[in-house]
Specification:
Helix content is 44%, strand content 15%. The chain has eleven helices and ten strands. Helix 4 (87-99) links the parallel strand 3 (75-81) and strand 4 (104-108). The relative contact order is 0.14. The structure holds flavin-adenine dinucleotide (FAD). The site of flavin-adenine dinucleotide has 25 residues, from strand 3, strand 4, helix 5, helix 6 and strand 6. Residues 50-51, 53, 79, 81, 106, 108-111, 128-130, 154, 160, 162-163, 168-169, 172, 175-176, 185, 187, 214 line the site of flavin-adenine dinucleotide.
Length: 311
Protein backbone atom coordinates (compact mmCIF):
# COMPACT_ATOMS: atom_id res chain seq x y z
CA UNK A 1 0.00 0.00 0.00
CA UNK A 2 1.25 3.50 -0.77
CA UNK A 3 2.15 5.66 2.25
CA UNK A 4 -0.44 8.41 1.66
CA UNK A 5 -3.22 5.79 1.81
CA UNK A 6 -2.44 5.16 5.49
CA UNK A 7 -3.31 8.71 6.34
CA UNK A 8 -6.72 8.64 4.70
CA UNK A 9 -8.38 6.32 7.20
CA UNK A 10 -8.82 8.36 10.37
CA UNK A 11 -10.95 5.67 12.01
CA UNK A 12 -8.00 3.28 12.11
CA UNK A 13 -6.22 5.57 14.53
CA UNK A 14 -2.76 7.06 14.33
CA UNK A 15 -0.26 5.61 11.85
CA UNK A 16 2.77 4.14 13.57
CA UNK A 17 5.98 3.57 11.63
CA UNK A 18 9.54 2.56 12.43
CA UNK A 19 12.81 3.41 10.76
CA UNK A 20 15.81 1.08 10.72
CA UNK A 21 19.22 1.30 9.07
CA UNK A 22 21.25 -1.30 7.15
CA UNK A 23 24.06 -2.75 9.30
CA UNK A 24 27.59 -2.73 7.90
CA UNK A 25 28.47 -6.38 8.72
CA UNK A 26 27.06 -9.86 8.11
CA UNK A 27 26.74 -10.35 11.87
CA UNK A 28 24.77 -7.11 12.05
CA UNK A 29 22.48 -8.42 9.30
CA UNK A 30 21.83 -11.63 11.26
CA UNK A 31 20.93 -9.65 14.40
CA UNK A 32 18.72 -7.34 12.40
CA UNK A 33 16.67 -10.32 11.19
CA UNK A 34 15.69 -11.03 14.82
CA UNK A 35 15.02 -7.38 15.55
CA UNK A 36 12.76 -7.12 12.49
CA UNK A 37 10.78 -10.14 13.70
CA UNK A 38 10.24 -8.41 17.05
CA UNK A 39 9.46 -5.03 15.50
CA UNK A 40 6.94 -6.45 13.04
CA UNK A 41 5.34 -8.30 15.99
CA UNK A 42 4.50 -4.93 17.53
CA UNK A 43 2.30 -4.23 14.51
CA UNK A 44 3.58 -1.00 12.92
CA UNK A 45 1.82 0.19 9.78
CA UNK A 46 5.09 0.38 7.89
CA UNK A 47 8.85 0.25 8.36
CA UNK A 48 11.32 2.37 6.40
CA UNK A 49 14.94 1.40 5.72
CA UNK A 50 17.54 4.15 5.41
CA UNK A 51 20.01 4.53 2.61
CA UNK A 52 23.43 4.15 4.26
CA UNK A 53 25.08 7.49 5.01
CA UNK A 54 27.14 8.63 2.04
CA UNK A 55 25.43 5.95 -0.01
CA UNK A 56 27.18 3.09 1.88
CA UNK A 57 25.56 -0.35 2.28
CA UNK A 58 22.96 0.69 -0.26
CA UNK A 59 22.35 -2.81 -1.67
CA UNK A 60 21.27 -3.78 1.82
CA UNK A 61 18.53 -1.15 1.91
CA UNK A 62 16.59 -2.95 -0.78
CA UNK A 63 17.44 -6.40 0.59
CA UNK A 64 16.08 -5.48 4.05
CA UNK A 65 13.02 -3.67 2.70
CA UNK A 66 12.17 -6.73 0.56
CA UNK A 67 12.57 -9.01 3.57
CA UNK A 68 10.20 -6.88 5.66
CA UNK A 69 7.58 -6.77 2.93
CA UNK A 70 7.86 -10.23 1.43
CA UNK A 71 8.71 -12.38 4.46
CA UNK A 72 7.05 -10.47 7.29
CA UNK A 73 4.18 -9.00 5.29
CA UNK A 74 4.64 -5.47 6.64
CA UNK A 75 4.58 -2.48 4.29
CA UNK A 76 7.92 -0.81 3.77
CA UNK A 77 9.72 2.10 2.13
CA UNK A 78 13.26 2.30 0.76
CA UNK A 79 15.11 5.52 1.49
CA UNK A 80 16.92 6.82 -1.57
CA UNK A 81 19.45 9.67 -1.65
CA UNK A 82 21.28 11.64 -4.34
CA UNK A 83 24.62 10.69 -2.78
CA UNK A 84 26.89 8.70 -5.07
CA UNK A 85 24.30 8.15 -7.81
CA UNK A 86 24.11 9.59 -11.30
CA UNK A 87 20.65 9.95 -12.89
CA UNK A 88 21.24 6.71 -14.74
CA UNK A 89 22.16 4.95 -11.50
CA UNK A 90 19.03 6.38 -9.85
CA UNK A 91 16.92 4.90 -12.66
CA UNK A 92 18.61 1.54 -12.16
CA UNK A 93 17.80 1.67 -8.43
CA UNK A 94 14.21 2.72 -9.12
CA UNK A 95 13.76 -0.25 -11.45
CA UNK A 96 15.11 -2.58 -8.75
CA UNK A 97 12.79 -1.08 -6.14
CA UNK A 98 9.83 -1.41 -8.50
CA UNK A 99 10.70 -5.00 -9.43
CA UNK A 100 10.98 -5.93 -5.74
CA UNK A 101 7.35 -4.92 -5.30
CA UNK A 102 8.20 -1.98 -3.03
CA UNK A 103 5.74 0.85 -3.46
CA UNK A 104 7.25 3.56 -1.27
CA UNK A 105 10.33 5.74 -1.25
CA UNK A 106 11.68 8.20 1.31
CA UNK A 107 13.38 10.63 -1.07
CA UNK A 108 16.29 12.42 0.61
CA UNK A 109 19.21 14.50 -0.62
CA UNK A 110 21.78 12.99 1.76
CA UNK A 111 24.27 14.60 4.10
CA UNK A 112 27.32 16.74 3.45
CA UNK A 113 30.38 14.45 3.88
CA UNK A 114 32.23 15.14 7.14
CA UNK A 115 34.91 17.79 6.60
CA UNK A 116 33.21 19.25 3.49
CA UNK A 117 31.69 22.74 3.53
CA UNK A 118 28.75 22.06 1.26
CA UNK A 119 26.91 19.32 -0.55
CA UNK A 120 28.57 18.73 -3.92
CA UNK A 121 26.29 16.58 -6.06
CA UNK A 122 27.81 13.67 -7.96
CA UNK A 123 28.31 14.30 -11.69
CA UNK A 124 25.04 14.13 -13.58
CA UNK A 125 22.98 14.03 -10.39
CA UNK A 126 21.11 16.38 -8.06
CA UNK A 127 21.84 18.92 -5.37
CA UNK A 128 18.45 19.07 -3.61
CA UNK A 129 15.75 16.72 -2.42
CA UNK A 130 13.07 18.33 -4.61
CA UNK A 131 15.06 17.41 -7.73
CA UNK A 132 15.13 13.78 -6.62
CA UNK A 133 11.35 13.80 -6.06
CA UNK A 134 10.89 15.33 -9.52
CA UNK A 135 13.18 12.67 -11.00
CA UNK A 136 11.11 9.86 -9.46
CA UNK A 137 7.85 11.35 -10.77
CA UNK A 138 9.39 11.73 -14.23
CA UNK A 139 10.68 8.13 -14.10
CA UNK A 140 7.13 6.94 -13.37
CA UNK A 141 5.75 8.91 -16.29
CA UNK A 142 8.43 7.70 -18.73
CA UNK A 143 8.74 4.07 -17.62
CA UNK A 144 5.57 3.08 -15.80
CA UNK A 145 2.97 5.30 -17.45
CA UNK A 146 1.33 5.97 -14.08
CA UNK A 147 1.95 7.39 -10.65
CA UNK A 148 3.23 4.43 -8.69
CA UNK A 149 5.38 5.30 -5.67
CA UNK A 150 4.26 6.82 -2.41
CA UNK A 151 6.94 9.44 -1.68
CA UNK A 152 7.93 10.80 1.73
CA UNK A 153 10.41 13.66 2.21
CA UNK A 154 12.22 15.08 5.23
CA UNK A 155 11.05 18.19 7.14
CA UNK A 156 12.95 20.07 9.84
CA UNK A 157 10.98 21.46 12.83
CA UNK A 158 14.12 23.23 14.09
CA UNK A 159 15.27 24.22 10.55
CA UNK A 160 17.73 22.27 8.44
CA UNK A 161 21.31 22.99 9.54
CA UNK A 162 22.26 24.56 6.17
CA UNK A 163 19.16 26.75 5.77
CA UNK A 164 19.69 30.47 6.53
CA UNK A 165 16.31 30.72 8.31
CA UNK A 166 13.07 28.86 8.93
CA UNK A 167 11.13 30.79 6.29
CA UNK A 168 13.58 29.77 3.53
CA UNK A 169 13.60 26.17 4.72
CA UNK A 170 9.80 25.95 4.66
CA UNK A 171 9.72 27.43 1.14
CA UNK A 172 12.21 24.74 0.11
CA UNK A 173 10.00 22.10 1.72
CA UNK A 174 7.12 23.42 -0.36
CA UNK A 175 9.24 22.79 -3.51
CA UNK A 176 9.53 19.13 -2.51
CA UNK A 177 5.79 18.83 -1.99
CA UNK A 178 5.07 20.64 -5.28
CA UNK A 179 7.48 18.26 -7.02
CA UNK A 180 5.28 15.36 -5.94
CA UNK A 181 5.94 14.33 -2.33
CA UNK A 182 2.93 12.74 -0.60
CA UNK A 183 3.94 13.03 3.03
CA UNK A 184 6.57 14.76 5.17
CA UNK A 185 8.42 12.95 7.95
CA UNK A 186 10.21 15.23 10.38
CA UNK A 187 13.67 15.19 11.79
CA UNK A 188 13.77 14.14 15.46
CA UNK A 189 13.02 16.75 18.15
CA UNK A 190 12.61 16.75 21.92
CA UNK A 191 10.24 19.66 22.43
CA UNK A 192 6.82 19.23 20.82
CA UNK A 193 6.43 22.97 20.44
CA UNK A 194 8.89 22.76 17.53
CA UNK A 195 6.58 20.30 15.75
CA UNK A 196 3.35 22.23 16.33
CA UNK A 197 4.96 25.54 15.19
CA UNK A 198 6.42 23.81 12.15
CA UNK A 199 3.04 22.35 11.13
CA UNK A 200 1.43 25.77 11.51
CA UNK A 201 4.09 27.43 9.34
CA UNK A 202 3.90 24.67 6.74
CA UNK A 203 0.12 25.05 6.51
CA UNK A 204 0.44 28.81 6.15
CA UNK A 205 2.73 28.17 3.15
CA UNK A 206 0.10 25.95 1.53
CA UNK A 207 1.65 22.59 2.43
CA UNK A 208 -1.34 20.31 2.84
CA UNK A 209 0.31 16.86 3.07
CA UNK A 210 0.36 14.87 6.31
CA UNK A 211 3.36 15.88 8.46
CA UNK A 212 4.49 12.97 10.59
CA UNK A 213 6.55 13.73 13.69
CA UNK A 214 9.79 11.74 13.92
CA UNK A 215 10.90 10.75 17.42
CA UNK A 216 14.12 9.10 18.51
CA UNK A 217 14.07 7.48 21.96
CA UNK A 218 17.28 8.28 23.82
CA UNK A 219 19.15 5.10 24.75
CA UNK A 220 22.41 6.61 26.01
CA UNK A 221 23.85 10.08 26.53
CA UNK A 222 26.76 9.46 24.14
CA UNK A 223 24.43 8.28 21.38
CA UNK A 224 22.10 11.25 21.58
CA UNK A 225 24.95 13.78 21.79
CA UNK A 226 26.48 12.35 18.63
CA UNK A 227 23.18 12.33 16.74
CA UNK A 228 22.00 15.79 17.79
CA UNK A 229 25.40 17.30 16.93
CA UNK A 230 24.94 15.99 13.39
CA UNK A 231 21.28 16.80 12.77
CA UNK A 232 20.96 20.05 14.72
CA UNK A 233 18.10 18.96 17.03
CA UNK A 234 18.28 20.66 20.43
CA UNK A 235 17.83 19.08 23.85
CA UNK A 236 15.66 21.19 26.20
CA UNK A 237 17.54 22.34 29.32
CA UNK A 238 15.50 20.30 31.84
CA UNK A 239 16.04 17.10 29.84
CA UNK A 240 19.73 17.95 29.41
CA UNK A 241 20.11 18.40 33.19
CA UNK A 242 18.57 14.99 33.84
CA UNK A 243 20.80 13.39 31.20
CA UNK A 244 23.93 15.13 32.52
CA UNK A 245 23.29 13.43 35.85
CA UNK A 246 23.64 9.97 34.26
CA UNK A 247 26.35 10.42 31.63
CA UNK A 248 27.96 7.05 32.42
CA UNK A 249 24.81 5.18 33.39
CA UNK A 250 23.12 3.92 30.22
CA UNK A 251 20.33 2.20 32.15
CA UNK A 252 19.27 5.46 33.80
CA UNK A 253 19.64 7.41 30.54
CA UNK A 254 17.53 4.79 28.75
CA UNK A 255 14.77 5.07 31.39
CA UNK A 256 14.76 8.86 31.03
CA UNK A 257 14.72 8.55 27.23
CA UNK A 258 11.82 6.12 27.19
CA UNK A 259 9.74 8.23 29.60
CA UNK A 260 10.49 11.32 27.51
CA UNK A 261 9.48 9.56 24.29
CA UNK A 262 6.22 8.27 25.81
CA UNK A 263 5.32 11.76 27.10
CA UNK A 264 6.09 13.35 23.73
CA UNK A 265 4.13 10.68 21.85
CA UNK A 266 1.07 11.00 24.07
CA UNK A 267 0.95 14.77 23.67
CA UNK A 268 1.52 14.63 19.90
CA UNK A 269 -1.30 12.12 19.40
CA UNK A 270 -3.65 13.93 21.82
CA UNK A 271 -3.10 17.16 19.87
CA UNK A 272 -3.83 15.63 16.50
CA UNK A 273 -0.55 14.39 14.97
CA UNK A 274 -1.53 11.88 12.25
CA UNK A 275 0.92 9.28 13.53
CA UNK A 276 4.49 8.91 14.76
CA UNK A 277 7.60 7.74 12.94
CA UNK A 278 10.07 6.25 15.44
CA UNK A 279 13.80 6.15 14.74
CA UNK A 280 14.25 2.82 16.51
CA UNK A 281 18.04 2.44 16.12
CA UNK A 282 17.77 -1.25 15.15
CA UNK A 283 16.50 -2.26 18.60
CA UNK A 284 13.10 -3.51 19.65
CA UNK A 285 12.78 -3.83 23.46
CA UNK A 286 12.44 -0.10 24.07
CA UNK A 287 9.80 0.11 21.34
CA UNK A 288 7.66 -2.53 23.09
CA UNK A 289 7.72 -0.36 26.23
CA UNK A 290 6.94 2.83 24.32
CA UNK A 291 4.20 1.51 22.04
CA UNK A 292 2.66 -0.53 24.88
CA UNK A 293 2.27 2.70 26.89
CA UNK A 294 0.40 4.61 24.19
CA UNK A 295 -3.37 5.00 24.41
CA UNK A 296 -3.98 3.36 21.04
CA UNK A 297 -6.29 0.36 21.31
CA UNK A 298 -4.81 -1.69 18.46
CA UNK A 299 -1.42 -1.57 20.18
CA UNK A 300 -2.63 -2.95 23.52
CA UNK A 301 0.04 -5.18 25.06
CA UNK A 302 -1.18 -8.16 27.07
CA UNK A 303 0.01 -11.67 27.86
CA UNK A 304 3.46 -10.79 26.52
CA UNK A 305 2.04 -10.02 23.07
CA UNK A 306 0.60 -7.12 21.16
CA UNK A 307 -2.97 -7.33 19.92
CA UNK A 308 -3.20 -8.10 16.22
CA UNK A 309 -2.84 -5.08 13.95
CA UNK A 310 -6.31 -4.13 12.80
CA UNK A 311 -6.29 -3.24 9.11
P1 LIG B 1 16.87 19.08 0.92
O1 LIG B 1 15.41 19.11 0.94
O2 LIG B 1 17.56 19.09 -0.39
O3 LIG B 1 17.40 20.32 1.79
C1 LIG B 1 18.78 20.45 2.10
C2 LIG B 1 19.09 21.93 2.31
O4 LIG B 1 18.99 22.60 1.05
C3 LIG B 1 18.11 22.63 3.24
O5 LIG B 1 18.83 23.56 3.98
C4 LIG B 1 17.15 23.33 2.29
O6 LIG B 1 16.54 24.49 2.86
C5 LIG B 1 18.07 23.68 1.14
N1 LIG B 1 17.39 23.76 -0.16
C6 LIG B 1 16.44 22.92 -0.65
N2 LIG B 1 16.06 23.32 -1.88
C7 LIG B 1 16.79 24.42 -2.18
C8 LIG B 1 16.86 25.28 -3.31
N3 LIG B 1 16.10 25.10 -4.40
N4 LIG B 1 17.75 26.33 -3.27
C9 LIG B 1 18.53 26.53 -2.18
N5 LIG B 1 18.49 25.75 -1.08
C10 LIG B 1 17.65 24.71 -1.09
N6 LIG B 1 20.42 10.67 5.29
C11 LIG B 1 20.97 9.58 4.67
O7 LIG B 1 22.17 9.61 4.35
N7 LIG B 1 20.22 8.45 4.41
C12 LIG B 1 18.90 8.37 4.72
O8 LIG B 1 18.26 7.36 4.47
C13 LIG B 1 18.29 9.48 5.38
N8 LIG B 1 16.98 9.46 5.73
C14 LIG B 1 16.38 10.55 6.30
C15 LIG B 1 15.01 10.52 6.60
C16 LIG B 1 14.38 11.62 7.19
C17 LIG B 1 12.89 11.55 7.49
C18 LIG B 1 15.13 12.80 7.47
C19 LIG B 1 14.46 13.99 8.10
C20 LIG B 1 16.51 12.84 7.19
C21 LIG B 1 17.15 11.73 6.60
N9 LIG B 1 18.51 11.73 6.27
C22 LIG B 1 19.10 10.64 5.65
C23 LIG B 1 19.36 12.91 6.57
C24 LIG B 1 19.42 13.83 5.33
O9 LIG B 1 20.29 13.28 4.36
C25 LIG B 1 19.94 15.21 5.73
O10 LIG B 1 19.06 15.83 6.63
C26 LIG B 1 20.24 16.11 4.53
O11 LIG B 1 21.17 17.09 4.97
C27 LIG B 1 19.03 16.83 3.93
O12 LIG B 1 18.24 16.01 3.16
P2 LIG B 1 16.86 16.61 2.50
O13 LIG B 1 16.35 15.66 1.53
O14 LIG B 1 15.96 17.06 3.58
O15 LIG B 1 17.49 17.87 1.74
Amino acid sequence: MRLPEYFKYGEKGPVISFEIFPPKTEKGMENLGMVIEELTGIGPDFITVTYGAMGSARERTLEIASLIKNRFGVETACHLTCVGSSREELDRLLIQIYESGIENIVAIRGDVPSGAQEFIPPPDSYKYGYELVRHIRQFEEDRLNRRYFGIAVGGYPEKHTEAPDMETDIKNLKHKVDAGADIVITQLFFDNRHYFDFVERARSHGIKTPIIPGLMPILSVKQIERITSMCGATIPSDLRKRLDACKDDNEKARAIGIAQCIDQSKELLARGAPGIHFYVLNKSDHMKEIIGALPVSRFKYSGGKFAANIP
